[in-house]
Design goal:
- The complex is a heterodimer.
- Chain A is 78% helix and 0% strand.
- Chain A has 12 helices and no strands.
- The longest helix of chain A is centred in the N-terminal third of the chain and has 42 residues.
- The relative contact order of chain A is 0.11.
- By secondary structure, chain B is an all-alpha fold.
- In chain B, 74% of the residues lie in helices and 2% in strands.
- Chain B has 13 helices and 2 strands.
- A two-stranded antiparallel sheet of chain B has the order 1-2.
- Chain B is flat, with a radius of gyration of 25 Å.
- Chain B starts with a helix and ends in an 8-residue tail after the last helix.
- The chains are: A mainly alpha, B mainly alpha.
- At the A-B interface, helix 1, helix 3, helix 4, helix 5 and helix 6 of A face helix 2, helix 4, helix 5, helix 6 and helix 7 of B.
Amino acid sequence: MTSPEVSVAPAGVISMESALRVIRSLFAWAGFIAVYLFLYTPLVTIGIFAFNDSTVQALPWSGFTLQWFGAIGQNGLLFSALTFGLSVSLLVVAVASVVGTYFAVVVNSATGAAPRVLLAAVIIPAIVPGMVLGLSLAITFRLVGIPAGLWSIVIGHLAFTVPVVTLVVLTRLRRLDPSLTQASMDLGANGWRTFWHVTFPQLRTAILAAALLTLTLSFDEVVITFFLAGTQQTLPLFIWSQTRFGFTPEINAIVTIIGAVSIVLIVIATRVIEREVDPFAGTGRKRRSRRGR
Amino acid sequence: MASVAVTHEGRASFRRRLPLVPLAAWAALLVLAPNVLMLVYSLWRTREGVLYRVFTFDNYIAAVTNDVTLAILGRTVAIAVGAALLATAVAYPMAWFVVRRLSKHRLLAVLLVVVPLWISYLVRVYAWKIILGDNGIINSTLIELGLRDEPLSFMLYSKFAVFLTLTYVSIPFAFVASYAALERVPASLLEASADAGASPARAFRTVVWPLSRQGAAIGFALALLLCIGDYLTPAMVGGLEGTMFGSLIVNQFGLTNNWPLGAAMSIVLLLLTGALLALVARFTRTEGTLD
């Protein structure tokens, strides 16, 4: 740029600017990808070591094996923790779906300040740190005389999962068209019939999504469970005790399986929520009526 | 006659309120009662494992005057606020990147940030133990390559490990909240500000940030809630140096078996968390509305 001509200068500036823009964009992409690497490194690590033929959790790689997956079935404690944890979670899902939906419907249809205040109160256990909820419930159960075991854990999990179901279903309820309910009432259906035939079908996907969320929240819970469990451990409690005192590669194997199942569940749940697909509709009436329209 | 009308009306309103009874019962039994009982318990005392039902503030005094407890409380706040801030500082620009640069794969990008939340929390924390430990991936690689003779010992069982792990588990929460707010900033506003001659930096400062900082604040608050009351992370990767307040509370339940002190500490933690969240809410109100 020896020439002092005015027309040359802007061209130089523009190319500098575009070069800067390219560099900035490269940096942005690099940062963006770096975060994903950061997010997935731990998960991939666990997955890789589930197949590593060594009892030591360190590099170098000592060969591929499936023995840790086979060992899951032979580890009696692990297996009983798995089945106990599953039964806790299934009970929690069943009760939380019904109770949470009921609360959402009640809060949505009632007027005045009372339902809002009660809703705010019911949400508290989902927000406070797990150990605070766990300790407060442990104190209560001790004073009331509820023994530590299956039911104390189930009640503890219900305390923080019911509000989650309520909020998810309530969000859906508030988006529904009220004229459908009014039409149903005008046609002479009572409150229950209207709920069952008009409101509930529109809530089904929201309830399903909330149930899946509840399942993972409950199945994964450690701290509250720690306060409320008796001698029988749930799976996360078992993993917790194992990972603190030593290491068994079966843990990596079972965690990899659960991770894979969770991802399949989340994919189904997001598909259901995104597309409003009703997985129960199948080839039934609903599908046909949709095509007819 | 008038009284009959009143009772009729009263009965009708009672019937309307009847469906609320289970909700009220739930709130009373599972929220009010446990918290009141925890408060009562925090005012009792134990000595050598025996519970004395006498009212005393000793537990609170012990919780906030003990040097060790106070130091751990201060560390807990510092680590939790730091990790939540760093997570928000990483997640917010990332969410902005997703909103501005991606269109077809936007949902996939969001989903990929959220998926780790569905993998057990315990496992995600445990993974860092495998990565950071003396025999962990980083150290064994460094030694294998001859870059170091001994493992880097600061990485596991340290404040650093707790901070890193909490930042890691916080990023998805901070991301989701930031994304939800940024996605709603209309592109037309950005075009308008560019047409009016604002640089991208200025458009961000005067348009995007004021409309989305509440989302960033919600993300920060979620992350803070997660970090400040955590027990698993310090217990798994913190060692002695990384002990946090949550570990102290759990110890009162387990090892020390002093439930009243644990209850008092829980209430201190609740009050502190509430105060921090109130501060966050005060400084990040949205200017203007989007809808």
